[in-house]
Design brief:
45% helix, alpha/beta, Nucleotidyltransferase, domain 5
Length: 370
Amino acid sequence: MAARRLLLAVDGGNSKTDVAVVAEDGEVLATGRAGPFRPQSTGVAAAVTVVEQALAAARPVATSTRGTAVEQALAAARPEAVVERALTAAHLEVGVEGVLPGVRPGGVGFDHVAAFLAGADLPVEEEALAREFAARGFGADIVVRNDVFALLRAGASGPAGVAVVCGAGINAVGASPTGQVARFPALGRLSGDWGGGEGLGEEALWHAIRAEDGRGPATALAELVTAHFGAATVEQVVLALHFGELDMDRLHELAPGVFAAAEAGDEVAGSLVDRLAEEVVVLAEVCLRRLGLLDTPAQVVLGGGILTAGHRRLTGRLEAAFAIRAPKAELVVASLAPIAGAALSGLDHLGATPAAKARLHAHYDLGTSR
């Protein structure tokens, strides 16, 4: 029997990196997880090393049909043996010392690598990451794209549509049925972006300090800031940030409190939630317009912790705005993990059958992913 082609799917995010080894018939053979993927702060080489770590930590999927060898490796509690035997059972030769486990010596590697990565915001960044994957022996057929494209494929019924992610930050991408792409530099305020937990946290602090010193209207956000960081005044928090005693990255922790304050009727917090809704809508609207999809049925996938949390005010504002500005758009909240989108995109690339994609979709629908 001919060996099944194998793909390596990668979802490299700001908080974690997931990998999945998938056969061309849609069977998920092994999954692994490692730390955050941050090439812009750690460098390209260090970021790709995190993918190696995720693959080295991979375990075979319990439902895999690869047989007794995998079960014996699990019993031995040797992760490297688990990966080795799982991939060997899938007709993939095992690496040797100095070569990535699970990848053939000589640079042959996986039949396809579908890597969807945070920090791959520009074509030049995608190209640099693809070169590093190739240099490490992952394979010769490598596609690197921004991680929001994985969200799009995970949530949409096919490769076309628009995806907006709102977690720590905010970004959007779109793809037309003909393959045209819409995207943004996504470099933060430098490129005109606002939103996500970081944006909400910064604005909450801005309004809180102005409420405290009298320059702005009273708001529950002042109490939110002091209570969350255990400070007597908002000014103490500001000074702690200024002197490096408090990490600026922690401001995103205020986001849930902003939504709670908005739900309780705080006008300032409500204005921030409304502003965020407008940012989400305009990102999607621009993508749809660029792709010529504004007046045709198209799916808009919403993902990220903020957009999937079910905040009532935000959801209501989004639904109302889309009904007016993109009435033919179908809002979809992503139910599959982005790693599933990376794997589905990999199967698309391999020309896999609809049955293979349905098999993979069912695997993640059943919650058997990591």
